[in-house]
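Reviewers asked in the last cycle whether our approach scales beyond single polypeptides. To address this, we selected a multi-component target totalling 396 residues and predicted its structure end to end. The input consisted of the following lines:
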Amino acid sequence: MTVAERGPRERMVFSAAQLIRRDGVAATGMREVAAHAGAPRGSLQHYFPGGKEQLVNEAVDWAGRYAGRRVARFLAALPEPTPSGLFAEMVRQWTDEYETAGFARGCPVAAATVDCAESTASTREAAAAAFATWTEPVARALVDLGVPKERAGALATLMISAVEGAILLARAQQDVGPLTTVARELGPLLDAAVTRDD
Amino acid sequence: MTVAERGPRERMVFSAAQLIRRDGVAATGMREVAAHAGAPRGSLQHYFPGGKEQLVNEAVDWAGRYAGRRVARFLAALPEPTPSGLFAEMVRQWTDEYETAGFARGCPVAAATVDCAESTASTREAAAAAFATWTEPVARALVDLGVPKERAGALATLMISAVEGAILLARAQQDVGPLTTVARELGPLLDAAVTRDD
DNA sequence: CACTGGCTATGACAGCGGTCATAGTAGTGC
DNA sequence: GCACTACTATGACCGCTGTCATAGCCAGTG
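The resulting structure, written as structure tokens, was:
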């Protein structure tokens, strides 16, 4: 989880995402991002001539792609994949982090939405795109698992809404309870949507 | 929705909540709050000697109590109250706002959590308390509607998680779809938890 | 050698943030 | 009239922010 090896540009985007999901967009300074990435301050204006807005948008973008990629991994890791199993894995990613690293960090896309939805149109659009690139693989996975196409999109939206909300509650009360609760309560509903047994 | 009549102190707390849920905590200035409340700047340090932290905490507190109070109203407004009906009302509060006033504003408690959970302990606790004072009436309502006590708390947590997450998605993509989706998909699950038919 | 282009390194600037200090006003009780 | 309290009104301060400007380094290339 420390700074990866990649190039400085990618490191800065990654660091921005980490700091944003911890402190929010407004409280995250450009200098702080550079320092966290171990990158020179001068590189900021070189790689991100669009300024903070561009950096934030790329961080949100990166987070969306990351979340989307995870879905395939979760499916591959499950011995016998089911909708509830997928959802449990999505939730477990967060309970694991909170139990091992503490409740310092939330979802960067949520932070960007809260802080910029009204003030910065391009960031709001980036957040919407990020949610979309996260929802889409989930919906597709549900279809693969036997959920009717008409229903898959709605359930994917429900899953992501529940996870995002549970992250907020869990962070606020510093307890993974809300996360495990939504996983437990939503599991049966998700599995019941499967109309074909493989 | 404009500035109410109350005293200047309460107006400032209210204005703080409104600005926070629009722009986030960090981006909301004290001077801005005073101006929005039509209150003199000097009153800030008089009523809130604890500074911004105190003001934000009281705004979060106020939001929690407001949300809690709404629950009773929703129940009273329903011709024949059911868990799904209550949830639909909770969601409708947001779809109504978004359809009439646009997607400028989100939940102030969510904003406080995202912006202050790591940086300001007292605000994180205020957010946790706010979520609690919101969850508790919902859980109690579920019990009244026939949901077993052991299950009511979990379902209340699920409801609030889903609403909070759906608010994020809806704001990001400027579409009430996620809100209506979670209401539709979660309704049957909630009603199915009723074990007694009144 | 010179020259170019990618990247680094600082310094300066203007703006805004929360907070403190101080002075002023309004109203009330005596 | 006076004194006291509640509240208002400004102005100043310092720290931090994002951004710009400028100069330096240091390959590669011809």
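Residues 8, 40-43, 46-47 of chain A lie near DNA strand C (CB under 10 Å from a C1'). We regard this as preliminary and will revisit it once experimental data from Aim 1 are available.
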